[in-house]
Amino acid sequence: MSRFLSSRFAALEAYTPGEQPQDMEYVKLNTNESPFPPSPEVIAAVSAAEVGKLNLYPDPECKRLRRKLAALYGVGEENVFLSNGSDDILNFFFMAFCDAERPVAFPNISYGFYPVYAQLYNLPATVIPLREDFSLNVEDYCGLHQNIVIANPNAPTGMVIPVSDIEKIVQTNPDHVVLIDEAYVDFGAESCRGLIGQYENLLVCQTFSKSRSMAGGRLGFALGSAGLIADLNKIKYSTNPYNINRLTLVAAEAAVDSDAYYRENCKKIQANRAYTVEELAKLGFTTLPSLANFIFTRCPGMDGGTLYRALKRRGVLVRYWNKPELKDFVRVTIGSREQMDRFLDTVQTILKEG
Ligand code: PMP
């Protein structure tokens, strides 16, 4: 830290993203990316001709892409907001809607970025414990009268709450914004976006990073009432109106047109998830019930850190958290069948070697 950093940020603990090591080729199951490339249409869309237009700014309103997404999800264009990854949308949610009078609540075990944003904006945060089995008690959030952010499916557990529970939370906090982070919704969970026409305080955010194989393109979107979307735009136009680059825009437009390709890939991930959970059970692992493109699993007699290191030495990358309630687990992204077999073989080798 230099002596120039504002004292506001002196105690800030930045988010630690999953490692992206460049030293060797790993079986990379640590940051929930898709193992599948973007669709052929997406690859063709990022053409030399489009690269040739990089001298021009992109459309800050992202009109074509918003129109396509609105049509896909049956909402109005005024209900769609686009930004540079869903992390950017989370950032805007905390910046736009939360303050000392409007604190924010989220579960104690969830996406690690929520407490960072709360700290960044110096917000009073209510951190609500999950039950011991990692399930969320919906009653904890009903009538809370705070802004609320919940990942559904949750990270790093992969567990879900039903849309009917989300509706209860939204209904009973009518004067606060409820953000449902659906980064992982396309792998078998039900989206609550069908509710946005009924509730002006519901914001749903999703991403092109996981189910649409575009983590490197950085694109997230939010669906919500026209009022909430206008508020997010106010923040976007007060920070960085051109926050989605031209190449990402053309890639994303083609991705929306290739919806069938991505739905097929999501089915493959779901099959590989079931397969991996079953094979791990044979080895004595306990895995939480996941509807995401990752699983949270516990090895008998070995803590998460030990397993993580043993896997990494053998070229397989997963993620673990050195926190009391999470330290027995590793989070494993569900990749291709070949990747999962490499992972499972490596786990077996480690177990044999004791
Ligand atoms: N929400 C959750 C729950 C996540 O796990 C992630 C990925 N780390 C994000 C949002 C952000 O994803 P992105 O910025 O790539 O859209």
Walk me through the topology.
Elements: E1 27-28, H1 40-45, H2 48-51, H3 63-73, E2 80-83, H4 86-97, E3 104-107, H5 113-120, E4 125-128, E5 147-151, H6 163-171, E6 178-181, E7 202-207, E8 220-224, H7 226-236, H8 246-257, H9 259-282, E9 286-287, E10 294-298, H10 304-313, E11 316-317, E12 329-333, H11 337-353
Parallel strand pairs: 1-11, 3-4, 3-5, 5-6, 6-7
Antiparallel strand pairs: 2-8, 7-8, 9-10, 10-12
Helix pairs in contact: 3-8, 4-5, 4-7, 9-11
What does this structure look like?
By secondary structure, the chain is an alpha/beta fold. It has helices at residues 40-45, 48-51, 63-73, 86-97, 113-120, 163-171, 226-236, 246-257, 259-282, 304-313, 337-353, and strands at 27-28, 80-83, 104-107, 125-128, 147-151, 178-181, 202-207, 220-224, 286-287, 294-298, 316-317, 329-333. The strands form three sheets. It has a seven-stranded mixed sheet, with helices on both faces. A three-stranded antiparallel sheet has the order 9-10-12. Helix 3 (63-73) runs parallel beside helix 8 (246-257), helix 4 packs parallel to helix 5 (113-120) and helix 4 crosses helix 7. The longest helix is centred in the last third of the chain and has 24 residues, at 259-282. The protein is globular, with a radius of gyration of 20 Å. The N and C termini lie far apart (42 Å). The mean pLDDT is 97. The structure holds 4'-deoxy-4'-aminopyridoxal-5'-phosphate (PMP).
